[in-house]
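Per-record layout

source: Eruca vesicaria subsp. sativa
name: NB-ARC domain-containing protein
length: 1042
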Amino acid sequence: MAEIPGDWESDIEYSLLRQDTKDKAMRDQIVQVVHREGPQRVLLVGKSGIGKTRLAKMVSEHETYCGHCETIWLHLNNKFDDELSLYENIAFQIGASNRDENKPEDILEDLKEKIITALSRTKATAAEKLTKKFAKAAMEPSYLLLILDDEGNKTSENKVMEDFGLYKYLRDHFDGNLKVLITRRKDDEIKSEGITEEQQEARSDDQTEPHTALDTERFHTTDMSKTLLKTLDMFHLRDLFHSLLKDKTKTLLETLHWKIDETLVQKSTSLPAAIVVLAKSLNCIVHQKTFTSLSPKQVQAFKDVLSRNEAASGYNPILQLAYRLLETDGTLKDAVVDCFWHSMDFFNHCSCIHYGELITQWILEGYFDPVRSVSKAYNDGHAILVELINRGILKTQEGDMVVPEIAMNNLIDLRHHGLLGRSRLRFSRVYGGDKNKGLGKTRHIDDMIKTARGENIRTILVSGNRLRLETPEEFFEQPHMKDLEVVGLFDPTMEYLIQSLRKLKQLRVLVIRDYDLLPSIEELKDLRKLEVLEVSGASSVETISDDFFEAVPQLQSLNLSGLRIKNSPSSISQLKHLHSLILRNCTELEDLPDMQELEKLEVVDFRGAHNLKTCFGTRFDARRNQTFTSLRQLQLLDFSESKIKRIPMFHYTAVVGKLHSLTRLYLQNCSSLVKLPNLKPLSGLQILDLSGTTSLVDIAAVCFEQKEELKVLNLSGTNLTELPPTISELSNLTRLLLQKSYNLEAIPNIERLTSLEVFDVSGCTKLYTINGSFKDMSYLREVNLSGTRIDAIPELPQESSIWCSKLLVLADSRRFEDYDSWGQVKKAIKYEMSESLTSCVIVDRIQEFSRNASEIVEKKQVNEPWAFDCLGKKGHIYRDVYTYTIPFVDSKNHQEILEIHGSNGVHQDEETLAKSEFVAFVDNSASSISSMFNDLISVKGCWVGMCMDMKILFSGVDVERLRHLETLSLTNLPWLDSVPSNIFKNLKKLSLDCCPSIITLFHASKPHTSFLEVLKIKFCDKLEKVFEEEVELPDLHTLCLF
């Protein structure tokens, strides 16, 4: 890519003029080809987002303005099911017929006549316009320009021109004056992420090569793709970017003090769509009423994305930045991110959609729950729609239709539950682009959403508050309601509602949300055409008959969340069309239906089934859910918070490699899970969450094989003692989370995890070894070792590929944050080492001191314990060694300090404790310290360190046991929030080191601290006050605050 010459700033003011000049030059080259004699066919082929549609629009607008042509624009990202739908679309564009008219005479042939009449009238008008404007050009014939935009996406050129007869129809009336302009994505892009094999096969059947017969026999075809591609250089994109920015946005970029505009263009991967979306997004942000500056999260988004050297195929940093700016915009509704992902997913399965229908889908999917007012939910949705359009994320087409910016399709949703876990219906899968199954063109009126077909209401969404104004029996039994197909009821509070609904025999979609008064759903059996059923939050429903779903065999989406049922109806296993099965938060559920033959399932979600103990049947029905190998379209599987011991198997040699579609496996807080099946076949897994599976003590090495797409691995709160060595093969892993895995002692070599961004082992109290280093992890931004026994920090990254704040938390909870590079972190650590020995330096010194003390050791008895000797001993006597590692030790008088380490303290006899004057508690529980302290009679010095659960110091200890205490040292107590000073009678020396939760040290109004001589406080990050009130310390001579 060429470098930008000259002074970047000096020529910005001319960018709009230069961009306009370049656009006209491209446009005119296309126009020259179109004006050639005879039928012309022009191709613009390339990847999404390079400006094909934009260029076609410039040509159309110019030629129409000049009176050269009449344009018919067909968006072939719209699925035309038949000939009538095609000609209706054309008639609507040129004003020959109104789509909402359903008159008998508007049959196909009559419609075609109206189209020709309208085009002839327009042609005459165009000729007259030419004569008046350009006398010289008056000799040029007026032609028809047919634009086939995004050809091959949902509908092909062959389907339109041949199968539906459009070529013959237009040829007969325009003869040689027909020109065709086609925009088309590359063949490898005409596909959808996440669609089923069945859909892909159906789509490929319609992908016959569009320019074979047409090319040679009927048109002269010219491929003008290179004309567009030649403009995708740095200079063009720079001018495009600045031509779109508003003055306030330009000022913002200047204040950031980075060469950010230059960087943005360089990071765009030569994709104009990325430049357009980002420029529009920035314009939206700076023109918000409350805007003063970018939020810290938005600034961080710039740093994270723009500094990343990403090589992944299809990854575009600028589109990622535009999404991050949307995600981190605190002024927008929380639902905006859900609506974004829904729009992208919807277009993968369906075609363009009317904006009102899209908003209605958002409401049905639950993104605005709880819905107390349909009007408010619709208005919130409309505000989000406008925001997405203004940012360029959604684009408008004719007739209020919208489509997303397809170039954003390569983004990956890595939110915890993602769209699959947030959507209630997955309605797009039911709709599938079939307009007969859609919601229709919606009307928002009287706190309801309605669609009509003729005089009959087809769709209605209404809240309980609005429904209370009606009589249910009369409301749904009105004549114009008898053909209702879609009903959404939100928080209804009226009885006898089901009796009215059961009479709606045409109902395909029924959503009843938060209906507490509903005692049973049995009467819904009469709705035999149901394809979508949600009855959620109905806490009074305790049973569903076993044969219930035999009556609704066409069901595709089922949501029974929040019911109090204990048994799931076995007839669910007969729903062969089911693709979404959601029973979230059914806390009483004890068994599951047999799902292993439901081959169309994409979502299986039983999150929150607290009483569910097995996925399988009883011993009399042992084959139930043994394997999910046949579920090759499964994308999400969630058994979180259940008590299952095992999950179904995936491995079966005949179909290994065919379970790539499963991207999310959630087993969070499955406390009874003891074993995982072979996960190797799940090659497309992106998120694996096993956090809180406290009974899981082992993971087979094969589970991490063939996981090239795994991004997030959460093993926090497990009791694993080791990790399989195959974890080193997870080269694309970005987050490795192992918090509070208390039994984990070592981590295998992690050097090959070069994509890692977050490494968190905080609270792993037994962890002492991390094999390998971080040196090649250029994307690493967070390392948390808090509460571990890591003596030596693995080598930190040598270089960083992301420009963001770095965070390192050491084992003793010291934090090094807000550094731009790991080099700065290393310098900060080195500086602190010179001030205070870190844990790894302490260990090195202890080993050195132990070697130097060998002569003394030889003079001691063989069995006499020494510092840092075998932990199997009952206790350790610290003499010279300890003087270098803990404060307040009198080395001259050879103090003997009894160390009680971990569980060793339970074996201390009362006599030994009673005689001890100096005691060190290391890695003990708060309760064990309190218990042993009550056996200490005359303790004068006490050292407490690495007590991970201590919140209240010496809770339950007899105050008399503390009356002789003169020296107290507290080190690495992460949850300690204060020191109860009124329990001490003679405290003279107090040291606190790495107690990050303390805000006020002494809360007592009259603390017994008048004898304090020395007070040292280090690395207590949240400390605001030492005393709650002003006090006098007459004997204090040493005060150290770090």
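summary: The first strand starts at residue 40 and ends at 45. The two ends are 51 Å apart (CA to CA).
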